[in-house]
# Entry
Amino acid sequence: MTQRIQSIVIVGGGTAGWLTAGIIAARHQGRMKAGFTVTLVESPNVPIIGVGEGTWPTLRSTLQKMGVSETDFFRRCDAAFKQGAKFAKWTTGADDDAYYHPLMLPQGFTQLNLVPHWLNEHSGRTFCETVTPQGQLCDDGLAPKMITTPEYQALANYAYHLDAGKFSTFLAQHCTTKLGVRHVLADVTTVNQSQTGDIRRVDTRQAGEIPGDLFIDCTGFSALLLGKTLGVPFKDCSDVLLCDAALAVQVPYECSDAPMASHTISTAQSAGWIWDIGLPTRRGTGYVYSTRHTTDDQAHETLMRYLGPQHSNLTPRKIAIRGGHREIFWKKNCVAVGLAAGFLEPLEASAIVLIELSAKLISEQMPANREVMDIVSARFNEVTGYRWGRIIDFLKLHYVLTKRRDSTFWRDNVDPATIPERLKNLIHLWKYQSPWFFDEFDRLEEVFPAASYQYVLYGMDFRTEVEAADCTATQSAASKLINDNLAMTRRLRSQLPKNRDLINKIAQYGLQPI
Ligand SMILES: Cc1cc2nc3c(=O)[nH]c(=O)nc-3n(C[C@H](O)[C@H](O)[C@H](O)COP(=O)(O)OP(=O)(O)OC[C@H]3O[C@@H](n4cnc5c(N)ncnc54)[C@H](O)[C@@H]3O)c2cc1C
# Structure
């Protein structure tokens, strides 16, 4: 039982496998000289899922800590900036119905809650434009920094859009050449357990037996280790989040210098929503829909109508998606990360950020030996279970707030039976006080902080009753923050380059390394 944890075996070479390998290897470089090993086994026959193009700003610090050059990343992963998401037709379905969930916190967020002031002010400005410049930067098609802003630093907070296939290849090269990760291309055929139920080794078709102390299941939807071998059940959440299929397709630009949005566009449809992500060389798009509310043929038609007749030659790929997650994520000496742990519709690009957070927790809490592993795994299960629950609530919030009743999909989505109790209670509470800093979002590294709830609630016309008297004491501080935001918006709009222009410049000259 006191055997030291020295040999980490990751099965799966998609975004989850390589990010996990890189995060662990970078964190434990010192130990690697003393026999600590990270091995990644990847099937040469089972392709990676190859979608997953929207990320969170956490990826900046993740890549930086792995020693990745941001310039190389932009150049080799067809990467671009992401400053948030624009949700179109989610509230009423009208043509002018749209709001932003930006990545910058509201001005002065940690000092003062601006929601009551905005509600009281009746300025005619949206909540987003009152508290942050980022929606307007997106409207103007601007980048979040300048060519002189060093790598990973920002003038406006940003994440990335990227090509998932290129990202895995890039990470594989970085992890094997710079971080000492051992890469084995082989199919795992058998997972071999000891009498205690721990995994002793994986047996492969091409590379023999691979023993390990800790196994990380990154085998995607198949969940070969945690699900199939250790039998951890899947907790389905399709009663809350109704979409269960996606049609994905890559769309060429009309010309190489076509404008490129620096935000994800999510446009609601009658049975789901379409994502639209601008990469430097193409767009990535897809329709996420509910097969209980539309047929595959109708979904295909909807997506093709969105793309326009000039793209009628494209053939979307159908991906069945099952919303939910494993009941626990770490059992015995095996922990699942990525799709093997679970999947939720990609409405807020929450999968890759969860991979980063999980891998970070594993690497920070790496058990010294088998004896203490169960203590660490209990903690990991508690934190990770909490995160999945909060993400489900946050995604459902987008559906619950809609005023659309134009199809059974939208009507079914507001059925109280589909809304988690915790979310129902919060929405009730938020009629009288707005979400803020202290409002149950008190964990370190909350995936969606209270600011995200503010942007979605007030973007979707939710109203909190506030009394003017509540604002009196903080009125002048609030006015200053709102004016600061207006000044910052003016400054950034005059200073920042167009999104595509900066991407072209990065390709040509690179960003300054830190
Ligand atoms: C339609 C759609 C859109 C999405 N959009 C987003 C988004 O915008 N943002 C976001 O954060 N996430 C998104 N996701 C989720 C994201 O794609 C995944 O979380 C991410 O790609 C991680 O996948 P993975 O590495 O877990 O699995 P995969 O990419 O499926 O990799 C599985 C790996 O396991 C290996 N493997 C399987 N079986 C074996 C075996 N027997 N032996 C050896 N190796 C094996 C395979 O070879 C492969 O390398 C989206 C998902 C879908 C379905």
Summary: The two ends are 44 Å apart (CA to CA). The mean pLDDT is 96. The CA atoms of residues 133 and 239 lie 37 Å apart.
